[in-house]
């Protein structure tokens, strides 16, 4: 995810590579790869990078947050803006780990940030001002759309927008597999599939018709679409999609319970 943000910010000319510092304690090779590819500054020393940063973006796995913040907290201050893209980790928990009043904003982008097309939401923690929100919005607007939401909704939004691209790629993979079964030329088939999806999205965005009206427009009685849609209906495709999204949202809430719970006797 960090790479998608970096790539998007540079491509969209929101930030110069020399002003982006990337750290990665565990993986030196990955740092060199990012330096080579984007010209960003890299360091395996969090301390060095942290001291000079105005904005810190946390992008490790949720399970690593405790350890990560333990190593950086003494190099962070209330003058820095802390952004976290970690699924399931609350702003309160990050503030608790930091142990000071730095503003923390929970951000849920998706990997389409790499091409400037993320659907990002941001949600402020308790020490956040309008100015912090404006800076964060402007940063992530460079890599897609940004909406401010309540933190209670971020788990559900993570299931739709954070994980969402993966469901789309899964669907496309299935469509690509059909090319073999149909003995169609791969390159031509792939191009047609992607343009078909792009066209459907364009129409969804520009028309005021519902998805149902749009698919009914495609379907002719006794025709090909009907034959295909019958399979989706018989296999309860929409129920599967709803269940998929519900499970993802539930997992985000579980991550909060497993990895982001503040001990009860903590003073706030
Ligand atoms: N992959 C995605 O589409 C999205 C991911 N996220 C969130 O982004 C975070 C990262 O996810 P991915 O990029 O998929 O995982 P990843 O495993 O590809 O990247 C995490 C990176 O953090 C590094 N790291 C771990 N501890 C560190 C530390 N203490 N200091 C510096 N670097 C450290 C790891 O070496 C690794 O390179 C997760 O918390 C996830 O919930 C959020 C939105 C979308
Ligand atoms: O799979 C995950 O947990 C992360 C959060 C959203 C997308 N990827």
Automatic annotation (TrEMBL):
GO cellular component, one term: cytoplasm
Amino acids binding NADPH: 46
InterPro entries attached to this UniProt entry: 6-PGluconate_DH-like_C_sf, NAD(P)-bd_dom_sf, P5C_Rdtase_cat_N, P5CR_dimer, Pyrroline-COOH_reductase
Cross-referenced Gene3D superfamilies: NAD(P)-binding Rossmann-like Domain, ProC C-terminal domain-like
Compartment(s) where it occurs, according to its Swiss-Prot or TrEMBL record: Cytoplasm
Pathway of action: Amino-acid biosynthesis; L-proline biosynthesis; L-proline from L-glutamate 5-semialdehyde: step 1/1
GO molecular function: pyrroline-5-carboxylate reductase activity
EC number: 1.5.1.2
SUPFAM superfamilies assigned to the protein according to its UniProt record, in alphabetical order: 6-phosphogluconate dehydrogenase C-terminal domain-like, NAD(P)-binding Rossmann-fold domains
Main location: cytoplasm
Chain positions recorded as NADP(+) binding sites: 59-62
Pyrroline-5-carboxylate reductase catalytic N-terminal domain: residues covered: 1-88
Catalyzed chemical reaction(s): L-proline + NAD(+) = (S)-1-pyrroline-5-carboxylate + NADH + 2 H(+); L-proline + NADP(+) = (S)-1-pyrroline-5-carboxylate + NADPH + 2 H(+)
UniProt entry keywords in alphabetical sequence: Amino-acid biosynthesis, Cytoplasm, NADP, Oxidoreductase, Proline biosynthesis
Domain Pyrroline-5-carboxylate reductase dimerisation positions: 151-254
UniProt keyword annotation of Ion transport present: no
Pfam family, one: F420_oxidored
GO biological process: L-proline biosynthetic process
UniProt function note: Catalyzes the reduction of 1-pyrroline-5-carboxylate (PCA) to L-proline.
HAMAP family reported in the protein's UniProt record: P5C_reductase (MF_01925)
Family: Belongs to the pyrroline-5-carboxylate reductase family.
Protein name as it appears in the record: Pyrroline-5-carboxylate reductase
Underlying gene: proC
